[in-house]
Amino acid sequence: MSNQWDIVIVGAGTTGIPAAIKASERGAKVLVVDVADKVGGTLHLSSGSMSAAGSALQKKKGIDDSPEKHFQDSIEINHGTGEYDKLRLWQENSGETLDWIMSIGLEYPEDNPVIGQGHEPYSTARITTPATAGKAYAAVLETAFNKVLESGNVELRLKTRMTSLIVNADGSVGGIITESENGDREEIRASTTLLACGGYSNSDEHWKEFHNRPKRVYTYEHSKGDGIEQARKLGAKVQLADNLIMTFGGTVDIDKPDDHWIHTATFPAMRAPWEILVNNEGRRFINEEEESQDFRERTIMNQSDWSCWLVYDQGILDQAPQLFLGWDAEKIERAFASHADYCRADTLDGLAKACGIPAENLKTTVEQFNKGRVVESDPWGRKHTPAPIEKGPFYAIRHYAISVVGFGGIACDNELRVLDADGKAIPNLYAGGEMLGMGIWGNAYLGGSSVGGCLTMGRLLGEKFLTWETTAAAAAE
Ligand SMILES: Cc1cc2nc3c(=O)[nH]c(=O)nc-3n(C[C@H](O)[C@H](O)[C@H](O)COP(=O)(O)OP(=O)(O)OC[C@H]3O[C@@H](n4cnc5c(N)ncnc54)[C@H](O)[C@@H]3O)c2cc1C
Q: If you take atom 51 of ligand 1, which residue's CA is the nearest one?
């Protein structure tokens, strides 16, 4: 096949693969390029929770739900923020997306859908999570995609990075320039270009520019914001970074120090708290039993450095249920022996020094906690205080506000055409998924919104939004 295509899709991930499958079903000649060596994108890391309203699965289980209920729940949770037209677009089509993904082989545990507890709960059971999380979506999408590859109308080029967009003389987009892993550049002409190459969560530069913050994330290595940058060069409007909300309680993985992810059970629904949380001034700042994830997220973002310390002693270590998730004793010991975020000292003075927090404040905080539990009157209203913090050695683990997605992105209309600063569509250029910034769902994290939203955008792009001129590709045959 020549290098003239109906559609070129940048990114063989959550959004790009459904778009390619569906567009090929409509007869388009599609080229998909991805910088990675495999398809699936962020799904290989993702927890894979997806929310959908009005699905066949819900109906089968007798769950009364609708896109309207999903929308009302969402604006309650996100405090009325977000792009309502995009919320509607996703939610009015999410049930069909779930039906489709199940029709191509995805299976969920018998008790799904559930209300879910990882984020602020919806009022209705509409979250589904496969047993093997995001990888399950990657697997069924790859199988379905392989079938369309066999049709001959679709081609996939892996290890191929889109480096820029081709701009025609009239200002419309005419395709992309790619670079292969051995540095070969290629001009790929297409009637329509879809940017489905994810967000910027793994880009230090974007974290600095959009949020003036260091990157503290657990995310896909290729989420570098390439698509956002290329669209921006053509005048696309970048927006929504201010809707950033961080996830509470990531710690550094000592084996991959660039990764900040949930390695401890600090969420009370998982494990009632024994430890206390103190900020970098050595003071408590939240009732550790607080169940609202949204409140926890906002509260850590109000602390200096958006970080805090989980403090406990040997008595708690001896009695409490396991704090670490999936770390064995050897790794935990190695963390305390080697990394500055994992502190251990014989005295509270020593612990405060190791953490770099004021010793007097830490000692006062611990004393108040210990006294409060004796009279069952915790200063922060906490009820579960089974043990004091009094027996050395003392421990502290630094916890951070972290993110798995980018909240800023490029503006699109409701057919996912990329818009410039004047709100005009840039001809022949579409975008979907995290490219739009997950801030479209608002200043809160809506459970299952990213996977559900990205799959839905991809499906709709392929099914109906993407249009193309067939003449050029056909003529080049
Ligand atoms: C640890 C983790 C847990 C998560 N858990 C959940 C969850 O439970 N529920 C939920 O809703 N969301 C979750 N998310 C978020 C969700 O998985 C992502 O937002 C979503 O998968 C992103 O889809 P996408 O299509 O935008 O990007 P991707 O799926 O990442 O696809 C983009 C593709 O573009 C490629 N690419 C990038 N740049 C280029 C370039 N220049 N040229 C060519 N190719 C390029 C990438 O290699 C990638 O394959 C989680 C994310 C992470 C990291």
A: 46
What SS3 state is found at 466? coil
Backbone angles phi, psi at 140, to 5 degrees: -70, -35
Mean pLDDT for the chain overall = 96
For residue 401, the surrounding DSSP H or E stretch is strand 394-402
35 lines ligand 1 (CB under 6 A): yes
Give the number of the atom of ligand 1 that is nearest the alpha carbon of residue 33.
43
Nearest-atom number in ligand 1 for the CA of 48 is 8
Query: Alpha-carbon distance 42 to 311, whole Å?
Result: 33
What is the CATH T-level fold of the domain 247-402, as seen in this structure?
Flavocytochrome C3; Chain A, domain 1 (3.90.700)
Cα distances from 71 to residues 75, 246, 352, in angstroms, run: 6, 22, 46
Is the shortest distance between the CB of 225 and ligand 1 below 6 Å? Answer: no
Cβ–ligand 1 contact at 450 (below 6 Å): yes
DSSP string, 163-188: EEEEE-TTS-EEEEEEEETT--EEEE
Return phi, psi of residue 260, to 5°.
-115, 115
pLDDT single digits (tens) 212-266: 999 999 999 999 999 999 999 999 999 999 999 999 999 999 999 899 999 999 9
Does the C-beta of 432 come closer than 6 Å to ligand 1?
Answer: no
What CATH number was assigned to the domain covering residues 4-239+405-475? 3.50.50.60
The protein residue whose alpha carbon is closest to atom 44 in ligand 1 is 34
The domain spans of the chain are 4-239+405-475, 247-402
For 236-269, b/e burial (b = at least 16 CB within 10 A) is: bbbbbbebbbbbbbbbbbbeeeebbbbbbbbbbe
What is the pTM for the complete model shown? 0.96
CB atoms within 10 A of CB 105: 12
32, with CB counted inside 10 A (0-12, 13-18, 19+), is buried
Q: Indicate if ligand 1 lies below 6 Å from the C-beta of 404.
A: yes
